[in-house]
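#onboarding

Welcome to the new folks! Below is a worked example of what a typical request in this channel looks like: someone posts a single protein sequence, and someone else replies with the predicted structure as tokens. Don't worry about understanding the tokens yet, we'll cover that in week two.

Example request:
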Amino acid sequence: MFVSVHQGNHWVLAVITIMDKRIEYYDSMGGLDITCLPNLRSYITMEFANKCQNLDAMTWPQVRVRDIPHQQNGIDCGVFMLTYADYSNRGRAFTFSQENIPHIRKCIVAQILDGNAA
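Example response:
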């Protein structure tokens, strides 16, 4: 499950993998929101409890993924977040960089305009 997280003026990505019992955190500026991951673990636990299923996500590892492309400015976090999600969904290595962002941004716009945005 991909969760886009808005932190006021910055976008990050959390990836929740139920089968692996793991939560990953991707921040294109290398930061860490210390409340985000515990809140997601609580949310998952409560959602499963509401569906009469016993699942305790409170013990799941929280992984801050560090070996990822980082943005070199203060405006491309949303594009990086969407690209992390896209590459993760496709099982691709993160081979993009800041230099690729203008092209990636155009591709995102084209997908939206064509109605092909996931």
